[in-house]
Amino acid sequence: LGVTNTKFTRVFQQIFDVVIVGAGLTGLTAARELKKKAPEARIKLLEARDEVGGRIRAKTMKTSEGEALVDTGSHFISPSATALTALASELGLTVYTQSNCGTRTLNIRGFRTKRQSPFLSSPHSFKEVLQSPDVSALASQNVHSYFTAKQTTRAETDTANRLLQVGVAVPLHCV
Fold it and tell me: Which Pfam family, just one, is annotated for this protein (predicted)?
């Protein structure tokens, strides 16, 4: 491996029961829950950056009314992510309800559209999709080959690409 960083080497000379990669809210929640259930567990939380919090970031900015703390990180926590919202509350973070009203408008390659592609919508629930006999065939191909086989429009491919980059931080051709 050729590691010369002594801090890094010291960490891996220790023995841990659990190693959690990433100190965002999910990693912090995992560590907290593990410690509650097994207080004796030796847990190591690894984070690439110099600070914990993952996508939760804020910067102090000068405004006309003085300095204000402005959110520059996470913009959405699902209401169903109860462990994350509980942790946010426990840490004293303010969580706001996201507005979900009005007509959704997409700007795709300079054109505004209010119509959702039928290709990107489904009348089926996620549970129904998972129980479908087609799911094993879908699981055996990657997202890029699926979109290629379906001969999607450029707008549909762009939208899927954008969703993947936001959701899992990778472009379509990498998934």
Answer: Amino_oxidase
